């Protein structure tokens, strides 16, 4: 790096932004001498643009950095991967919606099964209830039969035989 700025002929110093001409002279300039704005300075620092001095290429000849061309295949690779991920996400979302529909159907089926289960429990309980009532009636009948006045034993035996037949 030269010690003096070709624009003002003053020493470059260690402070402040300095820019190197990307033209054939390759000289270093002060930002003010190169007439570089703050926004241009940021672009140049980020290496998105090159700067050439008036002697090499014009007042503010900004070109794209050839390194950006090297990034193009990388950028295409990243874009391809993003597209692939997006397609995978779409496929997964489709599968998720199918599974959600299946779960909804299974929930409805489960509700129907629970209703049928309750209905069957009632049907099963009904004969037991009826048997319980019949048993109670038989006990009542036995009590009534057992409490018949003396001398009606013949009638009692006939009723017991009829009951055994039934």
In words, what does this structure look like?
With 166 residues, this protein is mainly alpha-helical. It contains 3 helices and 4 strands, in the order E-E-H-E-E-H-H. The chain has helices at residues 38-45, 67-146, 153-165; strands at residues 18-20, 28-30, 49-50, 63-64. The strands form 2 sheets. A two-stranded antiparallel sheet has the order 1-2. Strands 3-4 form a two-stranded antiparallel ribbon. Mean pLDDT is 77; it is low at 59-70. One of its GO terms (molecular function) is zinc ion binding. Residues 89-123 form a coiled coil. Keywords: Coiled coil, Metal-binding, Zinc, Zinc-finger.
Helix content bin: 55-70%
Order the strands across the largest sheet as they lie in space: 1-2
Q: How many H/I helical runs?
A: 3
N-end to C-end Cα span: 125 Å
Q: What can be said about the biggest beta sheet?
A: 2 strands, antiparallel
What does the average pLDDT come to?
77
Total beta strands: 4
What general form does the structure show?
Answer: rod-shaped
Run of helices and strands: EEHEEHH
Proportion of strand residues = 5-15%
Low-confidence spans: pLDDT under 50, at least 5 residues? 59-70
Descriptive key words:
166 residues, mainly alpha, single chain, rod-shaped, 61% helix, two-stranded antiparallel ribbon, two-stranded antiparallel sheet, Zinc_finger_PHD-type_CS
Helix-strand layout with pairing:
Layout lengths: L17 E3 L7 E3 L7 H8 L3 E2 L12 E2 L2 H80 L6 H13 L1
Antiparallel strand pairs: 1-2, 3-4
């Amino acid at each position: 790096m030269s010690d003096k700025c070709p624009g003002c002929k003053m020493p470059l110093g260690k402070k402040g932004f300095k820019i190197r001409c990307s033209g054939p002279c390759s000289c270093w300039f002060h930002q003010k001498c190169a007439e570089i704005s703050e926004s241009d300075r940021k672009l140049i620092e980020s290496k998105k643009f090159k700067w050439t001095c008036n002697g090499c290429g014009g007042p503010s000849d900004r070109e794209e950095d050839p390194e950006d061309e090297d990034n193009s295949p990388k950028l295409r690779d990243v874009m391809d991967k993003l597209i692939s991920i997006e397609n995978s996400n779409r496929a997964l979302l489709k599968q998720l919606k199918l599974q959600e529909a299946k779960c909804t159907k299974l929930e409805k089926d489960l509700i129907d099964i629970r209703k049928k289960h309750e209905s069957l429990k009632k049907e099963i309980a009904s004969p037991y209830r009826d048997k319980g009532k019949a048993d109670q009636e038989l006990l009542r009948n036995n009590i009534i039969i057992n409490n018949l006045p003396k001398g009606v034993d013949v009638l009692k035996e006939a009723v017991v035989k009829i009951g055994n037949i039934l």
